[in-house]
Amino acid sequence: MNKNNIKGQIVIISGPSGVGKSTICKEIVRQLRDVYLSVSVTTRPKSETEIDGQDYWFISEKDFQARLDNVMLLEHAEVFGHLYGTPKEKVDEALQNSKTVILEIDVQGALQIKSSYPNATMIFILPPSAKVLKERMDNRGREEGEVAEQRLNGASTEIAAAWQYYEYMVVNEDLQQAVNECVQIITGARNDKESSCPK
Q1: What are the structural domains of the chain?
Q2: What pairing do the DSSP bridges indicate for beta strands 35-37 and 57-58?
Q3: 140-189, pLDDT tens digit by residue?
Q4: No. of helices (H) and no. of strands (E), the chain
Q5: pTM attached to this predicted model
């Protein structure tokens, strides 16, 4: 696919664990038309609250490697000892159908996508404070002590990188306000793309 001539748009949404990215992404899909929310593949174990194919596609390391070997992933990254990647075929299909593709991925993956798709819109979700982020992570109870500590430490590194590379920073203090901001950014980027396309 000619990446300079794609019909749809790519929107990258990143942020530290526990910041509320998934909830924001689901709300964006609910509010906007012609949106495709990409579901990443991962080698990490599924938690009790997660649904395969909805939160992630949970696959083995062998399967992940096979997808890499066959160029079936748009980007991939290792995060806290587990592999994550974006399936290529579904994203290409959505772009060809003029859809807005939402990629909920980490900073490593985002930079890979941005180098391939320079027109991608990059949004980073920030917590109101480190204290609030820790409370949210504790409340969702997905990580054990040591892993939670790792993720919390990783958050400051991600946030520092985000200030350098991302066009938009949205603070998720009030969920509805954060969703509204993201919707405005995406709609604005979509309108800019349409107005700059030759008729």
Answers
A1: 3-196 (3.40.50.300)
A2: unpaired
A3: 655 555 655 666 666 888 899 999 999 999 999 999 999 999 999 999 99
A4: 7, 9
A5: 0.85
